[in-house]
Design a protein that fits this description.
Blueprint: E1 4-5, E2 8-10, H1 24-27, E3 30-33, E4 36-39, H2 54-70, E5 89-93, H3 99-107, E6 112-117, E7 130-134, E8 148-154, H4 163-173, E9 174-185, H5 201-216, H6 222-233, E10 236-246, H7 262-288, H8 293-308, E11 315-324, H9 334-348, H10 354-366
Parallel strand pairs: 2-7, 5-6, 5-8, 6-7, 8-9
Antiparallel strand pairs: 1-2, 3-4, 9-11, 10-11
Helix pairs in contact: 2-7, 4-6, 5-7, 7-8, 9-10
Bound molecules: S-adenosylmethionine.
Length: 367
Amino acid sequence: MRRHCGRYRYYLRPTSQSDNVTLASTILRHREEWGRTYHKFRGGTNDYWGPNDDQQNNQLDLGHHMMTMLLGDRLYLAPIDEKGQKCSQVLDVGCGTGIWAIDFADQHPEAQVTGLDLSAIQPEWVPPNCHFAVDDVEDEWTYPADHFDFVHIRCLMGSISDWKALYSQAYDRIAPGGWLQHMDMAIDFMSDDGSIGPDHMLQQWSQTFIEAGEKLGKTFKITDRAEQLVRETGFVDVHKKVYKLPVGTWTKDKPFNACQALKQIGLFNYVYCLEGCEGWALYLLTRVMGWPIEQVQVFIAKFRNALNDRKNHAYYMVSLRTQKRALYAAGRSAGFTQKIQAIEANVDNGTAHNHDYEADYYDHIAE
Ligand SMILES: C[S@@+](CC[C@H](N)C(=O)[O-])C[C@H]1O[C@@H](n2cnc3c(N)ncnc32)[C@H](O)[C@@H]1O
């Protein structure tokens, strides 16, 4: 059963995949630990580590601005509108506060944008073409095959136990010719001038969290592994861009990558780390690593001191991959290829839509 509550669709699967029960008031509850609140979707059984309170949500919104600036004030790089195509269905997986989905919906009034998250932390007032649902994205998606033109994933490092399965679900739900964009952080602090050596506090921090992610079974090293996984899943046209994200304002005026506003991004990142670190650490270091809370608090204090030390010229890498679900598989008949080429010519003229491909693709398979 599925019902709507305001703009939300709430899902709960207490007995079986097909029996979704609406329990809006339950879904809005949270659990509390160490003075912070955490999601309680399905009793909080998904061991997502981040709090869902205002402090963490403000930090997520700051992260959104930082990541958007890093892309040169763009929300995405996937060429979704390159050939005059229109996006009609868009999914943001693990949408957090919904800020990316809301901005995308504003920019694309023709699209229906859905954001999924474990927590109902999205605002009340959103564009009419933007909707949110509370769900675990590692469960079987409730959307039909070939439904989305664009699926967006950002900053789910340390949150997913089976990335291949997530990519496969995205692949099946993306229409042929549609795109997946995944942007994520490698949480490994480093420097080019030796200010962050292997024993540095920021390196100890990184290695501790990488270890915690592996112990939890939800890797923080997804940026290293993603490309092979998406190719194995069947995506094509895989393009990767890697950015250095500085922590603080230490970068010289001359930008070291394409972005013009690196000092400002670095300042945002400094505040992002300062505000975020307690929320990153509490669950992972106590529940997963088994540290006493006092040790965690000292570790957080040392991390903050290291962030404040202007001798440190730290950065970490952010990578963005765009990949496409192929329009048609190799080895099709010449007739089919000609048909698709004709549709592609129409797309070049701006007269076709992604779903035109879809219809012909399936007509042909049925032949
Ligand atoms: C670090 S935040 C990133 C939020 C957003 N993608 C952004 O870039 O602003 C990770 C988000 O993923 C959500 N999340 C983690 N695991 C999830 C899961 N299995 N299903 C749905 N949401 C999940 C969390 O609740 C959190 O809001």
